[in-house]
Design brief:
InterPro entries: DUF3108. The chain has helices at 5-14, 69-74, 143-151, and strands spanning 29-36, 39-53, 56-67, 77-86, 92-101, 104-113, 118-123, 128-133, 162-169, 172-188, 191-200, 214-219, 226-232, 237-246. It is mainly β.
Length: 257
């Protein structure tokens, strides 16, 4: 049952969608069903709300995932991820990670100073505060999702292209890499949809079979909605399927039968 855990984290790291300026806005909301075949392991949501943080207009994005039913009885997961993103510059000002994964807990808050290139990390569980430097154009794991939606031109991308991004997570800087696989018509709960396919690089070993064990399908339209995530694990496979949505900024294009 512990193999269901990575999908909640990876939904917020790797369900990356891409488009032009203003691909999303206040009120956008996604719900994903996480499942082994027909068996539902849990649900994850992503929602956007306009707010003000220290006098700046921001989007407050919250991602929440939890196990349900029998899966929760075997291995309880409640993951809460939040980011406060500048609504014009697409940079994060604050990131929150509060998780409970089978008794393994973290309660971390990160404040980003983009002028000084410093991240102040507050570990509330251990009552510790530390400061780290970060490179130019660094994102957190939530803001990356929305940054790429607004800034990557999918009309010029070619099969095999690899996108790189500076990311800061917990207390570390690292390069997030994503490979473009191609285009495909995908059958979804909402109908047949033109999609873009990406594979984020992950670490092979204990959880994943190899570094390209994740595949992500996003709608090839102005919204770039994450529709499906498939994870090939060391044992078995797991999927996260978009089951509900609302508040899209653009019309959702379905292929007529």
């Amino acid at each position: 049952m512990k193999k269901i855990l990575p999908i909640f984290l990876l939904l917020f790291i790797t369900a990356i969608s891409f488009g032009q300026k203003e691909a999303y806005g206040d009120g956008e909301w996604f719900k994903f069903r996480v499942h082994y075949g027909f068996v539902t392991a849990g649900y994850a949501t992503l929602g956007v709300e306009s707010k003000t943080l220290k006098g700046k207009e921001v989007y407050h994005v919250r991602g929440f995932g939890e196990t349900v039913g029998v899966s929760r009885w075997f291995f309880k997961v409640e993951d809460d991820y939040q980011s406060y993103i500048d609504s014009e510059k697409n940079i994060p000002y604050k990131f929150i990670r509060k998780i409970d994964e089978g008794g393994y807990t973290k309660d971390i808050e990160v404040d980003f100073d983009h002028n000084l290139k410093k991240a102040t990390v507050k570990d509330k569980k251990h009552n510790e505060t530390s400061v780290f430097s970060f490179p130019e154009e660094t994102q957190d794991m939530i803001s990356a999702f929305y940054y790429l939606r607004n800034n990557l031109d999918t009309k010029t991308i070619k099969e095999g292209d690899v996108i790189e991004m500076n990311m800061f997570f917990d207390k570390e800087n690292f390069k997030f890499q994503l490979k473009f696989i191609g285009r495909e018509v995908l059958s979804t709960n909402f109908g047949r949809v033109n999609t873009l396919i990406f594979r984020p690089y992950v670490q092979s070993g204990r959880v994943f079979k190899e570094k390209e064990s994740l595949t992500v399908w996003v709608s090839d339209d102005d919204n770039k909605i994450p529709l499906l995530i498939k994870a090939n694990l060391a044992v078995g496979s797991l999927k996260a399927t978009l089951s509900e949505f609302k508040g899209l900024k653009h019309s959702f294009k379905i292929i007529a039968k």
